Amino acid sequence: VGNTVLHILVLQPNKTFACHMYNLVLSYDRHKDRLGSLELIPNNEGLTPFKLAGVEGNTVMFQYLMQKRKHNLWSFGPLTTVLYDLTEIDSWAEDQSFLELIVSTKKREARQILDLTPVKELVSLKWNMYGRPYFCFLAIFYILYMVCFTMCCVYRPLKPRTGNKTSSRDNTIYVQKMLQESYLTYEDELRLVGELITVIGAVVILLLEIPDILRVGAAKYFGQTILGGPFHIIVITYACMILVTMVMRLTSTTGEVVPMSFALVLGWCNVMYFARGFQMLGPFTIMIQKMIFGDLMRFCWLMAVVILGFASAFYIIFQTENPENLGQFYNYPMSLFTTFELFLTIIDGPANYDVDLPFMYSVVYFAFAIIATLLMLNLLIAMMGDTHWRVAHERDELWRAQVVATTVMLERKLPRCLWPRSGICGLEYGLGDRWYLRVEDRVDPNKHKMMRYTEAFKAQDRDNYDKDLENLEINKNNLYKKEVSPLSLSRSTSRTSSHRGWEILRRNT
Questions:
Q1: Ion transport domain: which residues (predicted)?
Q2: What distance in Å separates the CA atoms of residue 67 and residue 48, rounded to the nearest whole number?
Q3: pTM over 0.85
Q4: Please, which residues have CB within 8 angstroms of residue 10's CB and are 6 or more apart in sequence?
C-alpha cells in the first residue's frame, strides 16, 4: 500500500505537496531491513517511483529524489564536490535502463531530465570516453563492409546471352551464370571472399537485432524515431535480402538482381543512421524520418489515387494508337510509370507532334497538370515546411536523446571488457557496494547574495502590505471613513524603503 501511494504521489500535479507527502510516507517505512525499502518496489510495469518520475517527466520529483541520494564530499568556498548515487540511473547493470526509458517515452518533458544533474554528466562521460570512439569505428567498419558488398555486386558472374531475342524491345545481352560456372578463376575466388564477408555480416546483423526486438517489443522498437526505428527496419530488410540472394545463387535461380538491388539501396541508405553521432547531421536524420513516415506516407495515398486514375485515362486514350510513335503508353504498367514521372515533373508531356494526337489527351493532360503539379506538389512542400519548423525548435533536444539511445545501445552490445563501469565504487568512501558519480559544482556567491537581497525585499514588501491592511481596518471602524483604493495602496507601498532597495538591486544587476 505504501509503495502504491508513492507511485500515486509521483503523478500528482502539485509537485511541492507530492514531495512533502512522499517524505512523510517514507518516514513510516519501518521494515527497510526485512522487506526492503518502499522506493525499490516496482509496479506492474516494472517501474520504481524513481523511474516513474523520469518516464512521466516529473523534473521536480526527480530532483527531489536525487537530492536525497547525493552525498557531499567536501566544500571549499564556492567549490563543492558531490557524490550522486547511480542506482537505477546507470544502464550498465540494469535490465530496464532508466536512460532507455526516458528516450523511449513519447512525453517531451521526460527528455528535459537529460539536462539535469547527474544524468547530463553521466551521459557526457559515457559518450566522450567510449561512445563516440566506438560509434565512429562502427561507422567506418560499416562503410567498408558496404564497399565490399557493392564490389561483389558490380563484378557478379555474368556470361553473354546465347538465345535468340523474342521481341524487338528485348535488349538483354548478358545473363546470370550457373553455380558451377561462377567460381573458376582467381577473380571469382577473390569475389567469393567478399561474398562470404557479406553473408557473415548479414547473419551478425540479424543476431544483434532479433534479441532487442524480443526484449523491447516490435511496436516500440520500430516505432520510436529516437531509438532509430526506421533504420532498424532498413537494416533487417537488408540482411534478409542478402540471405535471399545467397539462396538464389546456390540454387542457380535466375532473377537475383531483384533482391540484390534492394539490398544495395537499403544498405547505403542505412549509412544515414551513423549521422546521429554528429551534432551537425544528427537533427537532419530526425527531420527526414518524420517527413518520410509522417507527411510523405499520408501524401502517397493521395498521389496513388491520382496516378492510378490519370494513368488509366492515358492508357485508354492511346490504346488504339501505334505504340512505336508513342512508346510511353504502350502498355498499362508503362502508363503508370510514365504518369508517375509526369506527376513529379521529371519529364515533359510525352507527345509526338509529328503524328495526330487524340483530342482527349490535351484535355486530360491539362487537368493532370493543374491537379498534380500546381496543387498537390505545393501541398507536399507546405506540409514538409511545417514539419521542419516544428522539429527545428527541438532538434538539439532530440539530438541529445539520440546520443543517449546510441550510448545505451553500444553499452548493451559491446563486451564488458571494452566498456568498464562508469563512476566510483562506494566502498572507497564507506558508502556500501554502490556506484557513485563525482560531480564538482561551483556556486557563484554574488548570485546567492542577490537572491538573499531579493527575498529580503519581498519580505519587507509583505510586511508593509500587511501594515497597510491593518490601517484600512482601523479606518473602517472610525467615524470618518476614508475609502482607500487599490491604486492608493500600491502608491503607499511603492513609497516604502523596499522601493529604494529594488532600485539598488536593479542597478547592481
A1: 135-393
A2: 17
A3: no
A4: 18, 22, 49, 52, 53, 56, 58, 61
Distances (CA, A) of 151 to 197, 198, 261, 413: 12, 11, 13, 29
DSSP structural state of residue 165: P
CATH architecture of the domain covering 289-397: Orthogonal Bundle (1.10)
Higher local confidence (pLDDT), 399 or 454: 399
CA dist list (Å): 56 to 10, 12, 49, 84, 312: 8, 11, 10, 21, 52
Residue extents of the structural domains in the chain? 5-116+423-447, 125-163+173-277, 289-397
- pLDDT score for 131: 83
Does the bond joining 420 to the residue before it have cis omega, within 30 degrees of 0?
Answer: no
Residue 22, CA distances (Å) to 7, 10, 43, 117, 217 in order: 9, 8, 16, 21, 33
Cα of 439 vs its chain's centroid, Å? 28
pLDDT of residue 481: 41
Tell me how far apart the terminal alpha carbons of the chain are, to the nearest angstrom.
50
Mean pLDDT score across all residues of the chain: 75
CB atoms within 10 A of CB 466: 10
Distance separating alpha carbons of residues 337 and 149, to the nearest angstrom: 29
Amino acid at the residue 324: E
- Cell digits of residue 348: 515533359
What tens digit of pLDDT does each residue of 345-392 get? 777 777 666 777 778 888 888 888 888 878 888 888 888 787 777 777
Phi, psi of 439 (to 5 degrees): -130, 130
Alpha-helical runs (H) found in 318-356: 332-343
Whether residue 82 contacts residue 439, with contact meaning beta carbons closer than 8 Å, is answered with yes
